[in-house]
């Protein structure tokens, strides 16, 4: 193979990519646009102090103390004191407050008599982080008050102050979130969505270039042999997207304070495998679809199904077995699962055997099918497409 002809073919591939405004808009504009815009609404990452309504049906000193404790937690701010349950529910339904605390009548009396007391919590569960914040704040306040009243009761019964902590609370719970230490939305969603963005934009860019190249060849425009052009196109897009992936996993993760702990070499190796597989998939689609705009339609229609079956928004183990297996045929799913395990959870590369096997198997299938499509494409009538 003549090096000069290889270089000429590569320059032609680069020229087709960089002079196509739609491709460059997707590759550069789309990548940067999504990276800057998508996390923007969630820059606070964690919901702050949530408004709380308190319906106090007891109106005693202990009830007022519980209200002050709830208001003192970093998660809550008492914003309303409704006089009836109907008024309290209306405040919650109209988004005036996001949480509700109901202190029943005879609250103080039952607490000091050692009887069971039911304190009702309610929160806006349509936003799981807000709901979690409210419940956490209310649990802190009620647990603290419960411990205080138990200590007072033990002292009144003559218990030794030295023994009371062990009697009241024999062990302490110290919760610590793993993989998402702040419990924030950005750390939860951005790592997976960034992989999906790389996958979908790569499908559009490489698929569009391939469909338009088919049109040029069928129109009789001189071009390099497919046995040379396809590998060069694969290398071109993999290298271009490797730079974009490193920008995502490096600069933008740092910008949004997303934890990432994968060693560099395993991360780059898995990234190359994922991008190679996705590019082969894109080129395969380029020989399967007759018009360039169809690949964009396909990407748009597939985005939400990928989100809900990839295993980060909903556990893949809870999906029907046939659906879990079927969706593994899309490179985004093993890619997302592999990147999350490697880069966010700190799993060793050896533990990603399943994801790596899927990606390698899919690469072989797409590669063989791609060259078969390429071999027969010249004999099939295809609609002539504009070059741009």
Structure, explained:
- The protein has 388 residues and is mainly α.
- The chain has two domains: 3-42 and 182-377, no CATH class; 50-168, abc type-2 transporter like fold (3-Layer(aba) Sandwich), CATH 3.40.1710.10.
- It has helices spanning 3-18, 21-37, 61-72, 85-93, 107-112, 128-156, 164-168, 185-218, 226-255, 264-288, 292-309, 321-327, 332-344, 353-377; strands spanning 50-56, 76-80, 99-103, 120-123.
- Helix 8 packs antiparallel against helix 13 (332-344), helix 10 runs antiparallel to helix 13 and helix 13 (332-344) packs antiparallel against helix 14.
- The longest helix is centred in the middle third of the chain and has 34 residues, at 185-218.
- The two termini are 30 Å apart.
**Taking Cα atoms only, what radius of gyration do you get, to the nearest Å?**
29 Å
Number of helices: 14
Morphology: elongated
By helix and strand content, what is the structural category? Answer: mainly alpha
Whole-number tally of structural domains: 2
Oligomer: single chain
Spatial strand arrangement across the major sheet: 2-1-3-4
Number of DSSP-assigned strands: 4
Portion in beta strands:
5-15%
Low-confidence stretches: 378-388
Rounded to the nearest angstrom, the distance between the terminal CA atoms is: 30 Å
Mean pLDDT: 84
Helix fraction? 55-70%
Task: Tell me the series of helices and strands, N- to C-terminal.
Answer: HHEHEHEHEHHHHHHHHH
Instruction: Give a short account of the largest sheet.
Output: 4 strands, mixed
